[in-house]
Amino acid sequence: MARSADWFFDFISPYAYLQFARLAELPNDVTLTLRPVLFAGLLEHWGQLGPAEIPLKRVHTAMVTRWRAEARGLPFRAPPRHPFNPLVLLRFHLALGATPAAAGVIFDHVWAEGQDGEEPESLARLAKKLGVADLAAVVGDPAVKAQLRANGEAAIAAGVYGVPSLAIEGRVFWGDDMFDLALAWLAGRDGGVVEETVAQSERPAASERPRRHARQEKPSAGWAIHHVNLPATDVRASAEFYTEVLGMVEAPWTFPPPEEVGHISADPSDLTLLPCATGARGANSGLHLIKPEAAFARKNGFDHNPTIGGHVAIQVQDLDAVMERLSAAGIPFTYAKPFAIPGMRHVYVYDPAMNLLEINEMVKER
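The chain above was modelled as a monomer; its predicted structure follows.
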């Protein structure tokens, strides 16, 4: 009987490069679908740090992946910077049909040849290898962007928390070091290890380590700083400053459902997120870098333009009460339903010093 499997991966992962070379070892009755996903999105959803965010683990990862590659006879040359923003690579692969052949060229470009994973000239060389003349048009296709988001949602729904992960018949095998166990389980030669371990994991835990960094559900003061928005004429240059110089980490932007999303670009050269741990609720808390757009307000039907001049976003528990007070004081404001952040509605208003403020609230469940 034929079996279907999904392979969730990100080109940012050297472990994915290693495992990709072994996918041909899967049984002939397994139909495999390659599902590129944004690893940073999984990290943000599950509240984890990536290997490169822990200095000693970053060294470990570089060491062990190089060792495994050499032991397997695979060419291995790390890219000049890691981590890098893999969005273009992921979208490019999807635009090419998410085929194994295209994945192989992209993996080799980054991990066998050591080419940069996001630098424009490096990406142009990759596009030429794959016979694509207009890379920007290909990766900017809204359908491609939507598919990448859908892949991320599918990964989370399947319980995927890292890459690479092989998901098949309700089981998820995460990491290059789990591939041998996956092969044994698929062949019925794992001695019951997989199913017995899954059953044991469903028993209640004897103890649980305190979550020192858990977010507060409700800030004690009744409000929190949700984000700070800074305009950047060159978003990528600014992002490099915050990540490479200040040591912050870039993460993907989480968008509302297609029927709610407003006019806002998902291109990492126009918008990016540097998340932080705050008392705020909802997605995309942290530092926002956005390319100013003069027509942003008009295209969204706003009286204020949050892409110009920067703003601070204050999260409150009762946005209706805030709007009532603004109206009573005769202060004009823009009200926006969810358009850029899922499950969140917003007010834009100037304070007496003409600082633009965003005041937002998580939409209450009814």
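Residues 132 and 138 are 8 Å apart (CA to CA).
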